From TrEMBL:
The chain crosses the membrane at residues 40-62, 74-90, 110-132, 153-171, 183-201. It comes from Micromonospora sediminicola. The keyword Transmembrane applies. InterPro entries: UCP010219. Keywords: Membrane, Transmembrane, Transmembrane helix. Residues 209-231 are annotated as: Disordered. This is DUF3159 domain-containing protein. The keyword Cell division does not apply. It holds the Pfam family DUF3159.
Amino acid sequence: MTGGPERERPAEPRPESLADLLGGRRGAVDATLPPLAFGLGWVLGGLWGGVLAAVLTGAAVAGWRWRRGDRPRSVLIGLLAVCVAALIAVRTGRAADFFLLQIASNAASALAWAVSIVVRWPLLGVVVGVALRQRARWRRDPALLRAYGRGSWVWTATYVLRVAVFVPLWLDGRVVALTVTRAALTWPLIAAALAASWVVVSRSLPPGHPGPRHPLVAPDPDGEPATAPEK
C-alpha cells in the first residue's frame, strides 16, 4: 500500500499566444457595432437615421464597457470617435463620409507601423513590452528585436489592406458595402493578424530562446544574469 493518495501532476501551462498578451476580442467586436448600426439606420432612415443609430449604439457600448470596468479614457475615446465620424457625415451631407475617419486612421496606422520598423522600435514589441511591463528591455535582445520587426510587418499589411479596400468604396459612396467590409475587416482580420504575427515572432526566434516574457540581454560587467528579470 502506498503511504497516501497519489498527487496529481500539475498540468503543463498552455503556451501564451499574442491574443493572451494583448487582450481578447471584446474591444474589436464593440468597435464594429456603431458602424453596423449606422449602415442599418441609413438604410431605414437616411443620413440622420444612420447618425442617430450610430451615436446611440456608441453610447450604449460605452456604458456597457464602463460598467465592465474598462478604463475611462478608453471608453471615452471610443465614444468620441463615433461622435466625430457622425459629425463629419452631417457636415458634408454624405453618408459614406462616416467612414472617412476610419480610413484616415488606418492610413496613419500603416505609416506609423512601417516607420517604427525602420527606426528599430517595432510597435509590436512596444505593445507587448507594455503588456508585459518590460519597458524597453526587449530591445536589448537582438533576436527578439528582429522577431518583433518581422511580426510588425503583418500588422502593417492589415492597415494597408483596409485602406486599399475602403477607399474605392468610399469614393463610390457605397455605404452598405463599407458597413459590411468594416465589420469583416475588424475582428476577423485582427484575429488573423494575431495568429500570423505570433507565428512569425515564434519562428524568428532561435532554438532555445525563452520567448517574449524573458528577453535575453548581454550580461553587464557586474555579472548580472543574461535573462532580464521579470517584475
